[in-house]
Write a structure and sequence with these properties.
Elements (H helix, E strand, L loop, with lengths): L2 E4 L5 H12 L3 E6 L14 E5 L5 H14 L4 E4 L4 E3 L7 H29 L2 E6 L12 H21 L4 E8 L6 H4 L1 E3 L6 H8 L4 H4 L5 H13 L6 E4 L1 H13 L1 H11 L3
Parallel strand pairs: 1-2, 1-4, 2-3, 4-6, 5-8, 6-7, 7-9
Keywords: Oxidoreductase
Family: Belongs to the short-chain dehydrogenases/reductases (SDR) family.
Organism: Pedobacter agri
C-alpha cells in the first residue's frame, strides 16, 4: 500500500486530496493543526490524523520522526498555507513575517525533514502547491506571490538537486478554487489610499466569480495525476482560469502582461 503525507488536510484541497487518495487505495497521513476537530477523515480506514503546525519547527521534527519511524512514505504533499491579500503599505511587519514563515519556510522545513527518508529509500516525491500567482504578479498579492514564486523556484532547484537519489519534486499551480479559502484562509488589511484598487480586485472574489473557479475535487485529481503519471514532469497548471492566464503570459510575454495589468488597475 502506498502512503501519502499531507499538510493542511483539515479542509479545502488538503481534505479533498486525502479523500481521493484514500478512495484509490492509498494510506493517508493527514496532518493539521487541530486533528481533534476533524469528524470526517477520522471515519476512514487507513487515514491517520496527526497534529502539525508547519510554522512550529519543533513539531515538524517530532511529527516527521513519528511518521517515518512507522511508515514508508511515497509522497509528501506540501499543501498547508494561507493568503495574505492587501496593499503592501497596509501590512504590519508581523503579518509579513507570518506569511513568509507559513507559506515558504513551512514548505522548506517539512521538505527538508523528509529528504533523508526518501534518500535512503532511493525513491519518493514531493508535491508542492503553489499558485498562478507564483508564476505572475497581481495587485494586493505581493507578499503572497513572493512566497509562491519562492516555492516554485525552491522546488525547481530541488528537483534537479534530488534527482540523483531517485527523488522527484513537482509543483501544482492552481487558479481559483471553489472553497472557503477567502473566509477561512485569507488575511487582509486596509489602507485608504488603495480603496479603489482593493474594490476592483475584490470583484474577483465575488460569489459570481467564485462560481467559475475550479471545483476542489478537480484540483485534487491533478494532484493524483502528478503522483501517479510516471513522468518526470515538473509543473502542472491546474484549472481553466489558470491555463488561460499562463497561456496569455506565454503568448504575449511577461512584460506585455504586466503592462496590461498596470493599465487595467490604473485609477
Amino acid at each position: 500500500m502506498k502512503t501519502i503525507m499531507i499538510t493542511g488536510a483539515s479542509s479545502g484541497l488538503g481534505k479533498a486530496t486525502a479523500q481521493l487518495f484514500h478512495s484509490k487505495g492509498w494510506r493517508v497521513i493527514a496532518t493539521m493543526r487541530h486533528p481533534e476537530k476533524e469528524n470526517q477523515l477520522t471515519k476512514l480506514k487507513n487515514v491517520i490524523l496527526l497534529p502539525l503546525d508547519i510554522s512550529n519547527t519543533k513539531q515538524i521534527t517530532e511529527t516527521t520522526k513519528q511518521i517515518t519511524d512507522q511508515y514508508s512514505i511515497d509522497v509528501v504533499l506540501n499543501n498547508a498555507g494561507y493568503g495574505l491579500v492587501a496593499p503592501l503599505e497596509a501590512l504590519a511587519d508581523d503579518q509579513i513575517v507570518k506569511q513568509l514563515n507559513t507559506n515558504l519556510l513551512g514548505v522548506i522545513r517539512v521538505t527538508q525533514a523528509f529528504i533523508a527518508h526518501f534518500r535512503m529509500k532511493k525513491s519518493g516525491m514531493f508535491i508542492n502547491i503553489t499558485s498562478t500567482f507564483g508564476l505572475m504578479g497581481f495587485p494586493t498579492c505581493s507578499i503572497y506571490s513572493a512566497t509562491k514564486f519562492a516555492v516554485d523556484g525552491f522546488s525547481e532547484s530541488l528537483a534537479i538537486e534530488l534527482a540523483q537519489f531517485g527523488i522527484q519534486v513537482k509543483v501544482i499551480a492552481p487558479g481559483g478554487i471553489q472553497t472557503d479559502f477567502a473566509s477561512r484562509s485569507m488575511e487582509s488589511a486596509q489602507h485608504d489610499a488603495y480603496e479603489k484598487l482593493v474594490t476592483a480586485v475584490s470583484k474577483g472574489y465575488s460569489a459570481e466569480q467564485v462560481a467559475n473557479y475550479s471545483k476542489v475535487e478537480d484540483i485534487a485529481q491533478v494532484v493524483f495525476k502528478a503522483a501517479n503519471d510516471g513522468t518526470g514532469r515538473f509543473r502542472y497548471i491546474a484549472g481553466r482560469d489558470a491555463l488561460e492566464l499562463i497561456a496569455q503570459r506565454t503568448s504575449k510575454g511577461a512584460e506585455a502582461q504586466v503592462q496590461e495589468l498596470k493599465s487595467a488597475f490604473a485609477f
